[in-house]
Amino acid sequence: METGTTAADLLIHPRWIVPVVPEGAVLEGHSLAVKDGAISALLPRAEAAGIRAAEELELPSHALMPGLVNAHGHAAMALLRGYADDLPLMPWLRDHIWPAEGAWVGEGFVRDGVRLAALEMIESGTTTCSDMYFCPEVAAREYLAAGLRAQLAFPVFDFPTAWGSGPDDYLAKGLALRDELRHEERISVVFGPHAPYTVGEETLARIATLAAELDLPVHIHLHETAAEVLQAVEANGERPLDTLHRLGLLGPRTQCVHMTDAGRQDIELLAATGAHVVHCPQSNMKLASGTCPVTRLLDAGVNVALGTDGAASNNDLNLFNEMHSAALLAKLGTGDASALPAARTLTLATLGGARALGLEQRIGSLEVGKQADLVAVDLGGPAQQPVYNPLSTLVYACNGSEVSHSWVAGRALLAGRKPLTIDRRAVLAKAEDWRSRIQAGPSPGDRGNAAKETP
Ligand SMILES: [Zn+2]
């Protein structure tokens, strides 16, 4: 029988612990210990007296839960938040977003945009994100500095962009980055073919072969709108999901973003292949793209994660808002108020995201041995009182501003609502700087200018 004390780096005493596994559980009067970046104990507070910790934290009105996983976004697009609103997907992309990106995207834009996004995500309880955008090598540096965990889905298109000249170039740069960062605990680099309508079959087939050889995930926009599916059927006689399957691209490493157009056969194929769906309800609603059939996917056994998409189509990177929207949209879409209850919604935003990113052994729930990716949410405010059920309060009565503390692998990123790894004032000043430059319009040679500025 064990006697005496055990050591920990950090011992947290919150009012509630929401471990996510088992789903729906709420532990009151429990404590959680962290040692060497991992959760070393989760036990009744009375039994925690035997733990000698370097730091102890009392959180008397807080719920401690796993950090949220934002499974789809384009972080640097935070600088285009509010730039073009109230437009359908293709005119929004072709007439506004792509021209702006063509004029402005470079290393400086990505650096400052990712810093802004990272700050917003940390302050609203996200500890892991997936980021599909240009200059992922710049983004990786920013995530390492900010302390976040990140999957970088390096972009692949069939045409040139700010980051590359064509498929050969994108694949070479992306795989070189993957090699360079392969020993970074918190960073993964995966394939990010933009969508079947911007990446042709030849390139998709190459990615399928490489992904299988390297055992790397593939992150792709898929069936974002019914029009996208219809156009593909008219052009190729095949739904994009079937094309991916034929090319060997659908499997347990595949992350299908959006899937608003998913019929019975699509859902069966996703379930049979073990592919994941990333649901982005606010982006889908704002661009009037459609509704992902989340409850039918879950009933069929498909793993579903939540994502915000870019801030230009949301307009925030806040997973609390996304949980709220996902739950409400599922109820409205099915006519069933019991659809996607609070506990299941929180699972999607944590363990569902971890599974999609291949990280479920390490994050997504509060279990001994998993990484200490945690957030504390203060439920003591007027908008949260009284708290009958903390799970309900977290999903339906929080907006992310209640997040007071966060940790990734035991490292504190936020304490007392103050970010510890990012200079908040400098980041906000840079955002305003970009706003004034973008609104004034580009002058020749503007792209990349910011890259030459000192950070
Ligand atoms: Zn997207």
Structural features, described:
- The protein folds into two domains: 93 residues, Urease, subunit C, domain 1 (Roll); 289 residues, TIM Barrel.
- 51% of the residues are buried.
- The C terminus is likely disordered.
- Strand 8, helix 4 and strand 9 form a beta-alpha-beta unit.
- The strands form three sheets. Strands 1, 2, 3, 4, 5, 14, 15, 16 and 17 form a nine-stranded mixed sheet that branches. A four-stranded parallel sheet has the order 6-7-8-9. Strands 10-11-12-13 form a four-stranded parallel sheet.
- It has 455 residues and is of the alpha/beta class.
- Helices cover 38% and strands 22% of the residues.
- The structure holds zinc ion.
Compact summary:
The chain contains 15 helices and 17 strands.
Element layout with pairings:
Elements: E1 6-17, E2 27-28, E3 30-35, E4 38-44, E5 51-66, E6 68-70, H1 89-104, H2 107-123, E7 126-131, H3 136-146, E8 149-156, H4 167-180, E9 187-193, H5 201-214, E10 218-222, H6 226-236, H7 240-246, E11 254-258, H8 264-273, E12 276-279, H9 281-286, H10 294-299, E13 304-306, H11 319-334, H12 342-356, E14 374-378, H13 390-396, E15 403-408, E16 411-415, E17 418-419, H14 424-440, H15 449-452
Parallel strand pairs: 1-5, 6-7, 7-8, 8-9, 10-11, 11-12, 12-13
Antiparallel strand pairs: 1-2, 1-3, 3-4, 5-14, 14-15, 15-16, 16-17
Helix pairs in contact: 2-3, 2-14, 11-12, 12-13
Helix count equals 15
Distance between the termini: 55 Å
**CATH homology-level superfamily of the largest domain:** Metal-dependent hydrolases
* Strand runs, count: 17
The level 1 CATH classification of the largest domain is Alpha Beta
CATH architecture of the largest domain: Alpha-Beta Barrel
- Cα shape: globular
Hetero groups in this structure are:
zinc ion
Mean pLDDT: 95
Query: Which radius of gyration do the C-alpha atoms yield?
Result: 22 Å
The largest pleated sheet is described as: 9 strands, mixed
Structural class: alpha/beta
Helix proportion of residues, in percent? 25-40%
In the CATH scheme, what's the topology name of the largest domain? TIM Barrel
Strand content: 15-25%
Number of domains: 2
Low-confidence blocks of residues: 448-455
